[in-house]
Specification:
CATH architecture of chain A: Orthogonal Bundle
Strand order of the largest sheet of chain A: 1-2
Number of domains of chain A: 1
Number of helices of chain A: 12
Distance between the termini of chain A: 46 Å
Radius of gyration of chain B: 21 Å
Largest sheet of chain B: none
CATH class of chain B: Mainly Alpha
Radius of gyration of chain A: 19 Å
Order of helices and strands of chain A: HHHHEEHHHHHHHH
Order of helices and strands of chain B: HHHHHHHHHHHHHHH
Shape of chain A: globular
CATH architecture of chain B: Orthogonal Bundle
Number of strands of chain B: 0
Shape of chain B: globular
CATH class of chain A: Mainly Alpha
Largest sheet of chain A: 2 strands, antiparallel
CATH topology of chain A: ABC transporter involved in vitamin B12 uptake, BtuC
Strand content of chain B: under 5%
Distance between the termini of chain B: 25 Å
Oligomer: heterodimer
Number of domains of chain B: 1
Helix content of chain B: over 70%
Strand content of chain A: under 5%
Chain lengths: ~290, ~325
């Protein structure tokens, strides 16, 4: 494989990581909540999308929209009912609660749908290859890259140019100060949590082709989601974007170059990086 | 002459809390009773004892020092692989010195990783412990010649314990007593440690790290030391696992084991020594009964239980028992 196609393949994987993890970054940045169940929301969304296509015969994009809405709604419910009780709890309680939640999600999905891998049937025009002029590449990977970049742009605009985005940034940087200026951080959190859950669902549906989709999804990729968030810096949309692209490409290249121990480099790199900059590559030092 | 005030009673309770209480003999008597009464359950009993030891090591860092880690299986696996690789490649299959070697290797890894990791906290620390474990797991997966990759190393041979008691893979009689004795020795060590001034300062660090800095306690040094000691004990547990079962595989190093032991300790109640016992017994007996027949339902149950514990019963089974006991005493006193 030549360099460009490797980079494109890695970038596509990176964009999936970005779409799934961006919500995690913002919610962790806002509340400091250690949410290990984030991948579970993604998986549930993926299943909703697959079922919407299989059972109701919906087209791909309508199914994606339904997945987004369903998981955003579920996120609001769970956030209000359960997560909200643990904001001031210790890290350990949050870790336990979210591990428990992930186990419940995995078990429920296994009970209903069985342990098999689910497949997403892509629409005709997204299959096959596209000629970019200098290279022919899988249309679907290109579409994912485009979707990731567009989403990142949209989120960046929303964060940097709207009032609500400014509030979120303010709350991430200094929650107490933002609260004393009259920002309702709880409401903001519910909102971002819903958005993050919806995006995770979207990411799982879009990325099912690349990452696969089965009940073990949330735990298998947990460490990747966390790495992306930790490297990108908490509460930083652009940071997560670059971190996801970086990890996606690195992982892809390393797996091709060293099929046996490629992922080891990612772990080692993350270790060194976090020791050097605990706030992540793009994060600002807390305080 | 006035009656002793509540201050005096509290001082006495504090001064006497390290004393051995009568009920502390119960787990050991039960352990010995199991050997005679339920000889067909000794294989299960051996795994139970090993799990208790592993949970005890986690209690030291998490319950007493307040370090939240997701990667404690790294040290269990390090000990397990040390013994396995020594036996398979170096012909070093004397069990007791194997335990010492495992403790040294796991302790050294704990010391080194603790030294660099424990300057961080919160999410970063969580990530770093997870990455350390993933790194070890991946190395074990990669070093096929030495570790056997995914399949691990089956069919390991070990000499008889003290040259007298050969391991029997059918009934686990000698393994069980061996593990029980090792658990007892480690437990005494941990118990002495947590009631020593060193252990008290750990509790201080957990409760109020700023104040401990302010009174001049060497916070980081203490954390690193307890992390290394805990790693060594986890390594011993891993070594026991390999010796008792005569195999080692990647599952000793994975997230499943790390999360599992966390669940067990929380279920029993952390920061109270016997939480490891109660949690391991409750979890493993239930697992033994339910998990084989209904694995998915079991997982669902564990998940719901964890959510309930995190929301309502942060001190685990022993915490609930404590609260009930106190209520009962208050009712009787009235």
């Amino acid at each position: 494989m030549d360099l460009i196609s490797i980079a494109l393949g890695g970038l596509a994987a990176g964009m999936v990581l970005f779409i799934v993890s961006v919500g995690l970054s913002v919610t962790m940045g806002l509340m400091g909540f250690v949410n290990l169940a984030h991948g579970g929301f993604a998986m549930l969304g993926g299943y909703v999308i697959v079922q919407a296509m299989k059972v109701w015969g919906l087209p791909f994009f309508a199914a994606l929209a339904i997945g987004f809405v369903a998981i955003a709604a579920l996120s609001v419910v769970l956030e209000r009912l359960l997560y909200a009780r643990l904001y001031r709890a210790s890290e350990l309680d949050q870790v336990l609660f979210t591990i428990g939640l992930v186990l419940v999600m995995i078990a429920s999905i296994t009970l209903v749908f069985g342990p098999e891998t689910q497949t997403v049937v892509l629409p005709e025009w997204l299959r096959g290859q596209t000629d970019l002029g200098f290279i022919r590449y899988r249309t679907y990977s290109l579409a994912i890259i485009a979707a990731g970049v567009l989403l990142a742009l949209g989120l960046w605009l929303g964060f940097e140019r709207t009032r609500i985005g400014a509030k979120i940034r303010a709350a991430v940087d200094n929650r107490r100060m933002a609260e004393s200026l009259g920002v309702d951080v709880g409401r903001l959190f519910t909102l971002t949590f819903a958005l993050g859950g919806g995006l995770a669902a979207l990411g799982a549906g879009l990325g099912a082709e690349i990452l696969g989709l089965d009940p073990q999804y949330p735990l298998r990729y947990l460490i990747y989601f966390l790495i992306v968030v930790a490297v990108g810096g908490l509460g930083r949309v652009t940071g997560v974007f670059f971190a996801a692209a970086l990890i996606g490409i690195l992982d892809f290249v390393l797996k091709i170059q060293f099929p046996k121990g490629g992922t080891m480099f990612i772990y080692a790199l993350t270790l060194v990086l976090l020791l050097w900059r605990p706030q992540g590559l793009f994060g600002r030092r807390a305080g | 002459m006035t009656a002793p005030g509540p201050g005096l009673a509290a001082a006495r309770a504090l001064a006497e809390r390290h004393r051995v209480k009568w009920w502390e003999a119960a787990p050991w008597l039960a352990g010995i009773a199991l050997f005679f009464l339920l000889p067909s359950y000794l294989a299960f009993g051996t795994q139970l004892v090993i799990t208790i030891l592993f949970a005890l090591s986690l209690d030291l860092v998490m319950g007493y020092a307040g370090i939240v880690t997701l990667g404690h299986a790294a040290f269990f696996g390090a000990g397990a692989y040390t013994v396995g690789m020594l036996a398979a490649h170096a012909g070093w299959n004397e069990p007791l010195s194997g335990l010492v070697a495992a403790a040294l290797v796991a302790g050294a890894i704990g010391l080194a990783s603790g030294y660099v990791l424990l300057r961080t906290q919160g999410l970063t620390l969580l990530m770093l412990t997870l990455c350390t474990m993933a790194l070890l797991e991946e190395s074990a997966n990669m070093g096929h010649e030495y570790t056997g990759s995914f399949d691990g190393m089956p069919g390991l041979q070990f000499q008889a314990i003290l040259g007298l008691f050969p391991f029997d893979l059918l009934y686990y009689r000698s393994q069980y007593l061996y593990a029980l004795v090792v658990l007892f020795v480690c437990f005494v060590l941990v118990r002495v440690l947590v009631y020593s001034p060193f252990g008290q300062s750990l509790t201080g660090i957990r409760e109020n790290v700023l104040r401990m800095h302010a009174v001049g306690a060497p916070v980081r040094a203490r954390l690193v030391i307890v992390y290394a000691v805990s790693a060594a004990i986890a390594g011993v547990a891993g070594a026991l696992f390999t010796q008792a079962n005569a195999y080692v595989n990647l599952a000793t190093l994975g997230l499943d084991r790390a999360a599992g032991i966390l669940i067990i300790l929380i279920l029993g109640g952390y920061g109270r020594l016997y939480g490891a016992f109660v949690g391991a017994i409750a979890y493993m007996v239930l697992e033994h009964v339910l998990a084989k027949a209904y694995p998915t339902t079991w997982q669902l149950g564990v998940g719901l239980l964890l959510i309930a514990v995190a929301l309502y019963a942060r001190n685990g089974i022993l915490g609930i028992a404590d609260a009930l006991w106190r209520r009962l005493r208050a009712a009787v006193a009235r």
